[in-house]
Design a protein that fits this description.
Blueprint (H helix, E strand, L loop, with lengths): L1 H11 L9 E4 L6 H11 L2 H16 L7 H14 L5 H14 L5 E4 L2 H10 L11 H29 L4 E2 L2 E2 L15 H6 L1 E9 L5 E8 L2 E3 L5 E2 H8 L3 E3 L5 E3 L4 E3 L1 E9 L3 E6 L2 E4 L4 E4 L4 E2 L3 E4 L8 E15 L2 E10 L2 E6 L2 E5 L19 E10 L7
Parallel strand pairs: 1-2, 7-13, 8-16
Antiparallel strand pairs: 3-4, 5-6, 5-12, 9-12, 10-11, 13-22, 14-15, 17-18, 18-19, 18-22, 19-20, 20-21
Length: about 400
């Protein structure tokens, strides 16, 4: 990315953020779905910093089996410290850095190790067909959680099997029998997990039944010439259950008409919104891409929550699907870093104006030459102590 990198550095000029680096990612045939999401996650600062902190502690501890979490952390370390895939090249780079007293700020990294591990973990991503960026994001976050939870359980079991530490009044931190343990909360949960509450009100006795469920992202149905705010309102709209959809009320002990709605009980620190641009059309017998124009603001107020106060968010990344259908196309990403918007297209990185973000809202008409549409949106909470 020599020429492109020099062009980016020239565009940023003296405003090039200290300590920040921008690297394109090599495409291994069909891995744009992976590259676009990885760029968005890398510029999710709290997630990135906690991942790098985890990796630092991991390297200082005992060796463990390689997994997707380690491969991702190693890749982010390459971004951060301008590494190459080969460890010996890394040492050479360190020497070059010491000599020049300036680290490389642009370039191309080949995420070969990560992609190989991804394909080994999930056969869905082994083919060379067009993959779905949202499916990849879901798999990745859940896989990271599984790894962290497994490590925590292993560490806890080792601590419990070791001799108890003796103190004046008996063993330290004794566990009471029959006490329900709190669910494990990892740093992935702290960044991305929110809580939805599903409320159902019986129209006969007015009893409200509430059921909570967690989420890492919100998948929203979309309509033509709409906005994220209207999509969120539709997501939380009240639905009437009647006829064959009647609700079984525990208090009435029978099927009754009811009203239900879904609301956000606890907003996440990082709000990920997935726009359902691929819809199955029964008449066609296949999925079709919806090129609808859906406006996503740079600053978002989340008003449809259980809490009275609005939750304010700022857009920092967009994964864009390019193409007219779900089975072929391309993925790119837009990222905000230090008040600059950057356009990542695999190996290529360019600086763009903030006003260019709106060109990815979608098409106001059904047939349009513009096939670049926002698909996954990443918002960060503006609450300073949200993730504390």
């Amino acid at each position: 990315m020599g020429a492109a990198g020099s062009k980016l550095e020239k565009a940023l000029g003296d405003q090039f953020p200290e300590g920040e680096r921008y690297f394109g990612l090599e495409n291994f045939g069909n891995t744009c779905y992976c590259n676009s999401v990885l760029q968005a996650l890398y510029f999710c600062v709290p997630f990135r910093e906690q991942l790098l902190e985890y990796y630092s502690n991991y390297k200082n501890g005992a060796d463990a089996e390689e997994n997707l979490l380690i491969c991702l952390a190693d890749l982010f370390t390459q971004f951060k410290f301008c590494r190459e895939d080969d460890a010996f090249l890394f040492l050479a780079n360190v020497i070059d850095v010491l000599i020049s007293s300036q680290k490389k700020k642009t370039g191309v990294i080949a995420p070969k190790r990560f992609v190989q591990r991804l394909k080994k973990q999930n056969e869905l991503f082994r083919s060379y067909m067009h993959q779905d960026a949202h499916e990849f994001l879901n798999f990745l976050l859940n896989e990271l959680v599984d790894i962290l939870e497994k490590e925590a359980r292993t560490a806890k079991n080792e601590a419990e099997t070791s001799p108890p530490e003796k103190v004046a009044n008996g063993p330290k931190n004794p566990q009471a029998n029959g006490v329900q343990k709190e669910p494990l909360v990892t740093w992935v949960h702290k960044n991305f997990q929110g809580i939805l509450t599903n409320e159902t009100r019986c129209l006969r006795c007015e009893t409200v039944t509430a059921r909570d469920e967690t989420f890492f992202d919100l998948s929203l149905d979309i309509e033509q010439n709409s906005s994220i705010t209207s999509c969120l309102k539709n997501f939380s709209s009240t639905e009437t259950l009647n006829a064959e959809d009647n609700f079984f009320c525990d208090k009435c002990c029978s099927l009754q008409e009811a009203q239900k709605r879904m609301k956000i009980k606890k907003p996440p620190h990082i709000l990920v919104i997935h726009l359902k641009r691929f819809k199955y059309i029964e008449q066609l017998g296949r999925y079709k891409k919806l090129s609808y124009r859906v406006v996503f603001p740079l600053e978002l107020k989340l008003s449809n929550t259980v809490e009275d106060a609005d939750s304010e968010y700022s857009l920092f990344a967009v994964v864009v699907h390019v193409g007219s259908g779900p089975n072929h196309g391309h993925y790119v990403s837009l990222v905000k870093s230090h008040n600059h918007w950057l356009f990542f297209d695999d190996e290529n990185v360019e600086m763009i104006d903030e006003s260019a973000v709106q060109t990815f809202f979608g098409s106001a008409q059904e047939y349009s030459s513009n096939t670049d549409h926002g698909y996954i949106l990443f918002y960060e909470s503006l609450g300073a102590n949200k993730n504390s």
